[in-house]
Specification:
single chain, 69 residues, 0% strand
Length: 69
């Protein structure tokens, strides 16, 4: 009984960042247009997390969705 796993349907890896509205101000500012926001150099999302401009907790939620997807 109970809920063991939650998954997203019909959401591609490239669209996951759109589920995080607080990322919007930083999307498009990464060095590479196809940035995954996980391991790519020059990532504006990761830089914003490091500077405290984005929640680390929310970012880790994004990473989990991206890597588990």
């Amino acid at each position: 009984p109970g809920l063991r796993q939650l998954a997203l349907w019909d959401v591609s890896d490239s669209d996951i960042d759109q589920l995080f509205p607080e990322f919007a101000a930083f999307i498009g500012k990464c060095r590479y247009g196809n940035c995954s926001h996980v391991t790519d150099d020059g990532c504006a999302i990761r830089a914003a997390v490091e500077l405290g401009d984005l929640s680390q907790r929310r970012y880790f939620s994004y990473v989990k969705l991206f890597t588990d997807g």
